[in-house]
Amino acid sequence: MKATEVPAIAGAYLFEPTPYADERGFFCRTFDADVLRSVGLDPHAFVQDSLSRSVRGVLRGLHLRSGAGEAKLVRCSYGKVFDVVVDLRPDSPTYLGRAFFELSGETQTTVYIPAGCAHGFQALTATADTSYRIDRPHDPAEDVTIAYDDPELAIPWPLPATSMSQRDREAPSLAEVLKQREG
């Protein structure tokens, strides 16, 4: 497994495994504590695993947590997604930086998203399963959502959004969220 820094988001990494394929399919390691340690991450910090299943066009995000934030490892375990990370840490050298990835079940690449960054994705295939490994238990009271179509972010979503949660549809702009965080 290879770890690569994401230049647009300070502290973000891509973890690319080496799938071994044969006539049966493939096998690969999707989590390796030693590789995480090699880039300064504590593998024991992750306390919760979650999975979402989405159909083509479904858009989830942009989400982040208030308070201490939430670091996560995100991987598309089946299908393909367009994945987005936005750096919202005011003291970060990549503040307001954006990074886009295509994550797929074919490659099993994982993106590490530091606490304080917003995250979202869109399913590109008929079915897309997305796995999350999160560094603290979920508290819905800390959920923050930013409009996926905010013109300031200008995210190039590859498909029209066919479905999303009410919370995502009604999300405030980036400017509104930043103003709330300052106040």
TrEMBL record:
InterPro entries: RmlC-like, RmlC-like_jellyroll, RmlC_Cupin_sf. The keyword Isomerase applies. GO terms for cellular component: cytosol. Transmembrane segments: none annotated. Keywords: Isomerase. PANTHER family: DTDP-6-DEOXY-D-GLUCOSE-3,5 EPIMERASE, THYMIDINE DIPHOSPHO-4-KETO-RHAMNOSE 3,5-EPIMERASE. This is dTDP-4-keto-6-deoxy-D-glucose epimerase.
